[in-house]
Amino acid sequence: MLESAFPEPLRDVLAAGHLDHRPRFNEDGFEGLQETWTPPATVTVRQAAMAQRVLADLEGSILAPAEPDRLLGRVLALLSHYPAKGLTPDVEQLVALDWVDDLGEFPAWAIDQAARSWRRSKKWRPSIAEIRALCEEACAKERVLAGRLRTIVRAGHVAATSGPVPGALRTMGAPGLRRMP
């Protein structure tokens, strides 16, 4: 897993975070569970800096969007397996450009994986939405990890800007504070 390559202090923060599951609803009813990850309250500025570096590496490599030319080639190759009837070459090119626009946020490896999965399991031409869903599924773990790293970075910025609570204020408020279940 990706986390094994992270610095140990960052792995510790990721392991100590809290994962909360809440039901998510839309106009049609229950849609699934929404996960919310919260870092521990002890995130340091140093750990946040590590998270920022790892996040930059992750977004610049594994999650980097595919180059448009490569993406266009992949889309044209996929669509050529399922020829559209009645489309002129000009319209087919415009359709391919729509695909590039709508898949442009995904890394090349996720698009390749989605195309491979579709070719091996479906007999009909895919829609953009179907390939997007496969791309989202392919890079879901990496995107979740990137989201957690962003949360750690934000927590570190809060720790850096808030500073310590003054001693008198801390002792005044301590007896009246209690943890809520």
Keywords:
mainly alpha, 181 residues, 8 helices, two-stranded antiparallel sheet, single chain
Mean pLDDT value = 87
The major pleated sheet works out as: 2 strands, antiparallel
**Secondary structure: number of strands:** 2
**Percent helix:** 55-70%
Order of secondary-structure elements: HEEHHHHHHH
Give structural notes.
It is a single chain. The chain has a two-stranded antiparallel sheet. 60% of the residues lie in helices and 10% in strands. It is mainly alpha-helical and 181 residues long. The protein is built from 8 helices and 2 strands. Helix 3 crosses helix 4 (89-103). The protein is elongated and about 65 Å long. The two termini are 34 Å apart.
Give the SSE map.
Layout: H1 8-16, E1 18-26, E2 29-38, H2 45-60, H3 68-80, H4 89-103, H5 108-121, H6 128-138, H7 140-162, H8 167-173
Antiparallel strand pairs: 1-2
